[in-house]
Write a structure and sequence with these properties.
Number of strands: 11
Strand order of the largest sheet: 3-2-1-4-5-6-9
Shape: globular
Helix content: 25-40%
Mean pLDDT: 85
Bound molecules: NADP nicotinamide-adenine-dinucleotide phosphate
Amino acid sequence: MVYPILVTGGTGTLGSELVPRLLAAGRTVRILSRSARPNTEGVDYVVGDLETGDGIDAAVAGAEIVVHAAGSAKGDAAKAETLVSALRRAGIARHLLYMSVVGADTTPVVSSIDRSTLGYFEAKRKAELLVSGSGIPFTTLRATQFHSFFVAIVELGLRLPFVPSFAGFRYQPVDVRDVAQRLAELTLREPEGLVEEIGGPRVYPMEDLLKDYLRAIGRKRLVVPMPIPGAQPERNVPVQTSRSTTRPESAHGKSSWPKSLRPRHLTNRSLEPDCGLPKADQRAHASAHAPRPSPPDQKI
Ligand SMILES: NC(=O)c1ccc[n+]([C@@H]2O[C@H](COP(=O)([O-])OP(=O)(O)OC[C@H]3O[C@@H](n4cnc5c(N)ncnc54)[C@H](OP(=O)(O)O)[C@@H]3O)[C@@H](O)[C@H]2O)c1
């Protein structure tokens, strides 16, 4: 009997691109979610919460291949620990895939101030170590930020008088579909350990990304660069130019940021398959009549 592939985070931005690719490869999928949802063809939902541990033993029962793509701004180490413990108790997993972030191992998080702003990276690194030390054969993929990350910041800024940007930060946004494709391929192969990272085709100053997106949706807001506190300067490791957010040598993502924002992507029909943004954002875009953003010209 071929068991379904368990996907945590299967309802998220990445997971909702990953699951159809696994189905297209002829696999069935079990999705762990905190909310009950109706099953669909090839997909069963199980309710569970990786923060509390509720429902996790039932979710992992029979799972040989597990993709851990659930995550949130805080607490990813604890979520990984809950999952790994349940998988070890069940004792049959033969491939655990973990979705991590570029910078997990290269972002210095030492002080409590670092932790308050960059603690996400520390949690992802702890989760990586839990996975690699679990005794379960594993594959860990790190990606740069998805396009949806910048969309979320703009949407936050639209509720504020300005859009906050992190002063001096540069990013290499990657289309989530490129990440999902790579993760699907890895899921269907044997465990490979820590694999090469994936980033988008180009690096941009964060301000440019936010301004591009504002232009694309036809909205005006001041973009205000804000210094991110932390002890990096003391150790002479300027996080904004460090290896925290970019991997130019791993620019495997095909779809660039400006391409994703072309006006032809701002219609209901074309957005659905092509823009790489979450459904809620797609609906917001679809109602916007936007001018074409001028592609940022910096290549760093
Ligand atoms: N977004 C980025 O730019 C980026 C970049 C690199 C790596 N990553 C990593 O990629 C993974 C997916 O990111 P994403 O942007 O797709 O996330 P997302 O859209 O925010 O979705 C989060 C997913 O995690 C699940 N989840 C959250 N807390 C949970 C809990 N306590 N128990 C069970 N499930 C929980 C949610 O499921 P329910 O709401 O259905 O319960 C949802 O499916 C994360 O590990 C993230 O760290 C993200």
